[in-house]
Amino acid sequence: MLLGIRATSALAQREHHSHDESHHEPRLPDIVCYPRSTEETSAILKISAKYKLPVVPFGAGTSLEGQVVPVAGGIVLDMREMNRLLRVSVADMDADVEAGVTRKKLCQALQNTGLTFFIDPGADATIGGMASTRASGTTAVRYGTMRENVLGLTAVLADGRIIKTGTRARKSAAGYDLTHLLVGSEGTLAVITELSLRLHPLPEVVAAAVCAFPSVVDAVNTAIEAIQLNLAMARLEFADESQMRAINRYSNTDLPESPMLFFEFHALDDASVERQAELLKEIAGEHGGSNFQWSRSIAERDVLWEARHNAYYASLALRPGAKGRTTDVCVPISRLAECITAAKHDMQSLPFPTTIVGHVGEGNFHVLCILNPEDPREVEAANEFSGRLVALAHTVGGTCTGEHGVGIGKMRYMEAEHGEALNVMRAIKAALDPDNRMNPGKMLPPTGR
To answer: Could you tell me if 146 and 136 are in contact, meaning their C-beta atoms sit under 8 angstroms apart?
Structure first.
C-alpha cells in the first residue's frame, strides 16, 4: 500500500489534527493518513498493529469532549477523502455512505429524491463522526438519534479485520447487535468506514412556533403535555431568559426575554398544522404561555431557527474574548423542570455569565459557561459546577451526556453512572483491542480511577 502524499508528518497537518472544538489540551499525532477505501484503512490498521501505534479516527473535528485528540500520539486517520454516496434506495428509504460524507453533502445529494437525513447536531459533521459519538440534535424528538438511524455499517477492527454489521432489513433477531455497539463507541473499538442509513420523507407542510412563559416549570410542563398528546413536533427547544437576551442582542430579534419554547411541526397538509398549532396554543395558555406566534412562512421560520442555532455564538458575544464550556446532561422529562430550576439556582453563584438551551423533548439541556480560560478560579468553578450538575442528573436517573459523548471530558463520571457495567465495557474493549491502540485515553477511565 502506497499512500504517497496522503500520509504526512508535516507539522501544519499534525497541528490541525491535534484538537477538536473542545477546551481539552491539544496533542500532536506522529503522522496523519488520508485513506480512500476500507481496504486502505485495513492496511493502515495492520501496520499500526505490527508497530503498536495508536490510531485515532478524525472526521470534521467538531466533537466537544476531546474525542479526536491523539493523547498518545500515533496515527490520525482523517476519513474525509472517503466521501462518496454509494447507494440510495427511494423505495426502501435508505442509503449507503462512506464515513467522510458530511451531513450537508448528504442532504444536498438527496434533494431530488423526496427524502432527507434529519439528524442535525448543529455542525457540518461527518456521518462517521456522528455515528461514533451517537450524535443527535434538534430533530431527535421526532426522528431519533444516530442510534435509531444507522441500519448497519462496515468497520475495521484493531488488527485490520473488516466486518459488516446489520442488514438493510427493517428488523432482525440474528446475533448480537454489533451495529449499535459501535455506534457511540467513539473509535475506541473500531474505525467505521461505511454506513447504511435510514432516510425520512420530506414533510409536505412545515410550520414553526414560539411561545414565552413566566417560568421554567411552565415551559417544561407545556412540553410534556404536548408530547403526551402526540403532537407532530419535529423540534421542541427551550431557552432561558439569559439566553433570550443574548439572542436578541446577537440576532437583532425582538423576542420576549423570558423562558421560551421553540417548536417546529411537520405534517401532511395545512389543516393538520393549523389543528396542531391551535392545540399547542391552548396547552401553552393553560401554563401561562404568552406571545404565541406561529408561521408556515419559510422566511419567518428561518429567522426563528437561525436565532436558535446561533445561541452558542450569541452567548459568547455577551463576554467578548471569553470561551464557552458546555454541559450536556439528560434526565427523565418528568424531572426536567426540577433539574433546570436547581441548575439555575446553582448558576447564581458562578463567577461568569451562563445561559441555558435544551432539547426539552428528550430531557436534554446544556448550560453554557462563558469563562476566561486563563483564570484558574473560573476554570475550577466551571469544573465543580459541571460535576454537581452530573451528580444531580444521576440522582434522578439521568446521564452525564445526552449527545456530546464521553471522550476525555466525561470519563470521570462513568463509574458513578455505570457501576459494574463499566467492567463489562472494559472486557469488550480488551477483547477487540487488547493492545489499547484504538483511540486510547477516551471513554473508559483507567481501572481504579
So the answer is: yes
